[in-house]
Design brief:
The chain is mainly beta and 127 residues long. The protein has one domain: Distorted Sandwich (Protein Yojf, Chain: A), CATH 2.70.180. 9% of the residues lie in helices and 52% in strands. Strands 5-4-3-2-8-7-6-1-9 form a 9-stranded antiparallel sheet. It is globular, with a radius of gyration of 14 Å. The two termini are 21 Å apart.
Length: 127
């Protein structure tokens, strides 16, 4: 099952990921529009994830690791978290203009990361 975060809460989600997950291991993959996957970073120590405006008309999600790795997803469309059987979430899917980015966290994200965030199509979401 996937839970999609409403765009109005993307900044808060990124702030929570920084608070809860900074220093955790993350592996990053790109999924092209044709479905082709390629790993762009493995066992990275997460430094930050930031939702920001790049210029007057483009938003972005920027992922940084402590070793200098940086990836920018320009014009995000959806941010979804995949719920696993143990109740955590993995991976985080960021669908963007140029394709998707999958962030696999180790260990998986805890449900506390999503508390109070508005989620698309989720009956228990805060309104």
């Amino acid at each position: 099952m996937k839970e999609e975060i409403q765009s109005s809460d993307w900044k808060v989600l990124c702030e929570r990921l920084n608070a809860f997950e900074r220093g955790q291991l993350v592996t990053a993959q790109i999924v092209e529009h044709d479905g082709t996957r390629r790993e762009i970073g493995s066992a990275l120590l997460l430094e930050s994830i930031e939702f920001k405006r790049l210029n007057g008309c483009n938003d972005a999600v920027v992922v940084r690791a402590m070793d200098g790795f940086e990836h920018t997803a320009i014009e995000p469309i959806h941010i979804r978290l995949v719920k696993n059987p143990s109740g955590g979430f993995n991976p985080v899917e960021i669908d963007a203009e140029g394709g998707s980015v999958l962030l696999h966290f180790k260990p998986a994200l805890t449900p506390a990361v999503l508390e109070g965030l508005n989620r698309v199509g989720w009956a228990g979401a805060a309104r």
